[in-house]
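Quick one: examine the sequence and fold tokens given here and explain what the tokens say about the fold. Here goes:
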Amino acid sequence: MIWLKVFAVLIVGLISGITNEVNGSDHIIVETENVKNDGRENRELGVQYRLACPGLSECVSLRECPQILPEATKRCYNSDRSLFCGVNQNYEPYVCCPTYSSPTYATDDTTSNFDKSSGSCGRSLVQGSSYKKLGAYPFAARIGFKNINTGHLAYPCTGSIISKRVILTAGHCALAKADGHRLSSVRIGEFDSTKDPDCAESGFCAPSAINHAVSHVVVHPDYVNGQYHHDIALLILRTPINYTVAAQPICLQRDRTNLVVGKRATIIGWGKISLSTVRSPEMQYMDVPLASWDQCLRVYSASGALDSQKSIEGQWMCAGGEGRDVCQGFGGAPLLITESGITSQIGIMSFGSENCGGIRVPSVYTSIANFYNWIQENIPIE
């Protein structure tokens, strides 16, 4: 596995440091040639060295303990070698794997895990408040449409990861009917579309991005194609996502508490921004202020975009208007806030103006709080 080898390069120095501190410590060097075969199909073969683990854990290859990967990645990045206990001849890491169910390392999904009180969402594995590159916002996914004639994939929309098999996006993205294209897959774990795998300047790399086929789509029943009310959908993937430094689930904001006018929020995705003449291959982010709904009414009421017999109060949010904004390619993208180290999604990019980025020209987002219960009720049971 490519990602495992890349990860091993990062920690081999840490593991080497462990051997220099073994004498006088709680760790005991295990001579692997004398270890009896216990039914694990000779997994010790090829091990350069392996250390005993304390407590209710055992030293095994990281590939045998995938549930510990997020925690191991985080500790590795912070130069914490406490989980690592050895390495084999291919420089694949060995870790102290819990032999019991540990909430610290658990990554199992339930339908309520997108609530920030669960503690299992909205966290980046990369530390640093000013860091905005690979791994800073691991919550976004690219929605792919395949050309039925050439097989070429295009990614005109963005979504957010809310569980291992569910992507949240806009209804207009899920039901897009571009000529000769059809909804095909969701690309998970990408930061820069020109690189695979993505690597940060500081030296760590993410696993290669993976395209997950879409099993089926759940669109809000009151959404009408070509309009924007109830502009929300769930994409159900055929296979579960493996959470990594570049792919993590986002929390969802269940109410509008503290979402006051002027509060800063961040939109992330791949597309063109008003400040640039070209579309960057890297994930983009932009901080925008929450605006009053009256400001959006002044901009869009004459266009008819807000008119619908099924339109309901509170379904939209207004953000932007500072003279800069995100433009093409950000449909379905998440609008985020971060508080106390936890990132929550408060909106889904629905539509904007042709005068993208104009002064006092905000964009319109589907409100997560308004559709929180609908999302929870429509996530399939794993």
About this structure: Confidence is low (pLDDT under 50) at residues 1-45, 100-111. Residues 2-19 form the longest helix (18 residues).
